[in-house]
Amino acid sequence: MPDKKQQLAAGDLVTKTPELTLADLCESCGLTEELITTYVAEGIIEPQGSDKVHWRFSRIHLIKIHRASRLERDLGLNAAGVALALDLMDQLNELKRRLLQYERHGETNNGL
User: Fold this and answer.
1) N-term to C-term CA, the chain
2) Of 51, 50, 61, which is closest to residue 24 (Cα–Cα)?
3) This prediction's pTM
């Protein structure tokens, strides 16, 4: 099990393997259990497990939580607003990815 006080640092391996408990996640992020529970209720993060006692989080959740807390702090959004903003940002990134793929495909066809 990872050291409870570890911070996500540049170069750290980020995996989707659930290895953190709710307490571990709160300590790693410096956030309260109540706020993490709100993030779960709003769909910002989705732990594995049926209830709080059995919830397990992966390191990828740390990234999502940091993004969410920055949006709350910097823009003054509530949890519902953060969930909406993150969803819109994900959609925008997906559209950008598709557009880039489309443009690349068009370039290869135009060169024939």
Assistant:
1) 55
2) 61
3) 0.73
Hey, what CATH topology would domain 22-110 get?
Multidrug-efflux Transporter Regulator; Chain: A; Domain 2 (1.10.1660)
SS3 26: helix
83/88 Cα distance (integer angstroms) = 9
Length of the chain equals: 112
Domain extents for the chain? 22-110
Q: How do residues 46-63 score in pLDDT, each as one tens digit?
A: 999 988 999 999 988 999
- Residue 56 β-bridge partners: 48
Joined tokens for residue 43: 């769909």
CA atoms of 47 and 57, how far apart (whole Å): 5
The residue among 8, 100, 95, 11 whose CA lies nearest residue 57 is: 8
What are the residues whose beta carbons fall under 8 Å from the beta carbon of 52, sequence distance 6 or more? 22, 33, 37
Type of residue at 52: K
What's residue 19's pLDDT?
85
